[in-house]
Amino acid sequence: MDIGLRSPTNIFGQPTDQLLFDLDAALSQWDNQSTSSPVTKIAFGHFPISFSALTSSGRSIRDVFLKHSLSAYLCGHLHTNFGRNLKRHHTSEKNRFSSKQYFQFDICEGMPTAVSNDNCSARTESAGEFWEWEMGDWRSARSMRILAIDSGHVSYADMDFRFGSRDVIIVPTFPLDSRFMQRSSDPFDFICQATSAAHIGTVRALVFSRYKIESVTAKVYELHSGSFHLVLEQEMENTSGKGAMYTVAWNWRDFSDESPDRYWLQIEAVDMSGKVYLSEQRPFSVNGLTAKFSWTWKEFRVMGCQWNQLYFPIMWTTLAFLFSLVLVPRTSLTFYENRFMLKLLKPKMTRRSSGGFSPVDFEFFGVELSKMYIIWSGMLLYLLYLVFFPWFTGYAVTENHNKMYLHYKGWSTKYLANTSSMPYIGLPDVMVIVLPHLLFVVLPAFLIIAAIAAERALYLRHNIYQRAKKDGDHYKEACYTEYLCIFYWIRKILILLCLPIVWKHWKSYYEGIRG
Length: 515
Known about the structure:
Keywords: Membrane, Transmembrane, Transmembrane helix. It comes from Urochloa decumbens. InterPro entries: Ig_TMM62, Metallo-depent_PP-like, TMEM62_C. The chain is of the alpha+beta class and about 525 residues long. About 35% of the residues lie in helices and about 20% in strands.
């Protein structure tokens, strides 16, 4: 989309069909070339997959990446505001209605945890896959990522410069981190010996230093009962002359294990002044298995949820509930007002041990809402307005001075030039206005109104039965006064609950005006 939208309805990337066509062509240029080894493909972009919209024809940038089975897609946009583990492994799904179109609970959901030798003969072409790594940002988090490609394997190391510069930077390139860097094909390559022993027979790392490096050591720890135990310590050699690559041979068969996080690698470097530098400990699996790692709630919201697919299901589910909250009591009132049915559904009475009576049927409490005709009509008309009419007008486009109308389907382009083929723009960006308003303003307000109606019905019912009793019983009069006090405080609490709703509505309005 060539039109620039103003905040807050500009949080999604809007790829076009032409952009996906050009991207597909660029990634296909090596497919027909005969090479001794597969080409490692890496893509860079601003928006994560979870914040990338579909094109006008319904295509997704994710489908293009899966088609070419990228090694990695590096993106930004989220910075580090939601966490440090904004990573996700994508795999193609044969099932068209797979839940992964909407959400994914784990970073590596569906990755293999074990492979047997029997799979080698039946192995077919691997399914499309790619890693998505959000990079953080330099402006506020002072974060930098170094990417390395070693024999087709892509690895990285994140540097945090918030507390100053680094004299030494260490990037282990093999073995890979079993949490964030393994691919679905790695277990097959290990079991079926598709990878040469020379490749997996060395530990490799890049070491960049401001000063001369005296020694580099590879250390392998075994995680047992929550503590690390050193099981291997070998000095590495500089195999690239004046370069930064250090390697050491190891007996990798000793570390073949069914657990992907039993063994952990750490590289130690010592410079000419004797200062020791350590890389981050990372689990590895020479078997190619993937260690389970889960997002936090904030990370799951921005990486695990495919919001362009979830927008309409969430919106229509909320609207369906709100319409049922308004229409069902009205239907019940019409049903109960039928004389014949009223006789059949006459409230039964149950005698308490104290000798009093109380109603058993609480259905009439919901009917009280529809008796408040003005409020009920206002609620219904407001819902119909949200569905069929524009919500408000505003200057949504930075390149045009005409006001535009916001609908739940996007900003109307009726008064915008050169957009005749696009009746609405900004979908699903408008969800940042639509969903918070429905979920945090309209829904709580309707529930509180229904609760006030139920409290009113309960109070009237209780008052009627108390008046029907004989006077002179001081104990019952005291209980009646206590009940009145309870109803008084319930009503006060419900009214006070309206204040957070008003504050949320004002805050959303202020953010929209400021954008």
